[in-house]
Amino acid sequence: MDEQEALKKKLGLLKDEHRELDTMIDDLLRETVVNQLAVQRLKKKKLLVRDHIARINAQLLPDIIA
């Protein structure tokens, strides 16, 4: 497997994790007693995953200044 394929696979896994975190946050917010600390931690993790997705996208599609 070359580097591009490995990055694409990692990107897919990260996108899945991002969706999962979003669902978990929504579920926590629907509860009658909201655990704000858990919500904050999940949101922080979701942000880190999103940043990682952006870095991989930048590697796969580098900016080309014409």
Descriptive terms for the model:
66 residues, mainly alpha, 80% helix, 0% strand
Written account of the structure:
The protein has helices at 3-30, 36-60. With 66 residues, the chain is mainly alpha-helical. It has one domain (3-60). The longest helix has 28 residues, at 3-30.
Q: How would a crystallographer describe the biggest sheet?
A: none
Number of helices: 2
Portion in helices: over 70%
By secondary-structure content and strand pairing, the structural class works out as mainly alpha
Name the assembly state: single chain
Pattern of helices and strands? HH
Taken as a percent bin, the fraction of beta residues is: under 5%
Helix/strand layout:
Blueprint: H1 3-30, H2 36-60
Summarize the structure.
The protein has 66 residues and is mainly alpha-helical. 80% of the residues lie in helices and 0% in strands. It has helices at 3-30, 36-60.
